[in-house]
Amino acid sequence: MTAVRPPRTPLVGDFVRLDPLLKTDVPDLFTAIGHPLVFSGGFGGGPEGYPDNLADFTAFADSYFAWERSNVHAVRLVGGENDGLLVGTSTLGDFDLDLEHAHIGWTAYDPRVWGTAVNAEAKLLLLGAAFDNGFGRVKLQADVLNERSRAAISKIGAQFEGIVRRDRRRADGTWRDSAIFSVVVDEWPAVRAGLESRLAAYGAEPVRLRAAPDGG
């Protein structure tokens, strides 16, 4: 099957819905992820890249997300008292149709949904969109120093490929090494089953917001 770019349409699960992120969503996205704790792990170039007001965050979002070249998503809750609440963002991009490669990244969530079903289902939906549209390899990566993100990527079943050294600059000017993971199409049935099993363990209750971790 030849890879084609997935359509920019909503991806709907039991706990979250991934809608195309719009410029008009940026204020709500700032409310969700505009916290030092989110940037401390490496999102947006790391702590020095943290924009502490809406104007700076809007400028950051304009340059950070590949709005036209990628499928940039708003992650919203489904069901319950917070139905429709924007709680994060994730992108499927870096499309190479000839090599059938894609990349899931540019991901950040409101700390109040960390440790819930949100990330697992968002990854299930994004991986499904990639493989359903003919891609054979999906890359995921994290700053080598971001142990939390690396553990989350491993937990979904992605295979660790290695470290790309001096990969890109952080916002403070230091050089980041990137930990590279991937899921290939032959592994997708097992990865999908693992994610579905994790999600089943949450039952039928909608995601509830938690207290932000210390530092949030």
Automatic annotation (TrEMBL):
Residues 17-159 form the N-acetyltransferase domain. One of its GO terms (molecular function) is acyltransferase activity, transferring groups other than amino-acyl groups. Gene3D superfamilies: 3.40.630.30. SUPFAM superfamilies: Acyl-CoA N-acyltransferases (Nat). It comes from the Bacteria. This is N-acetyltransferase.
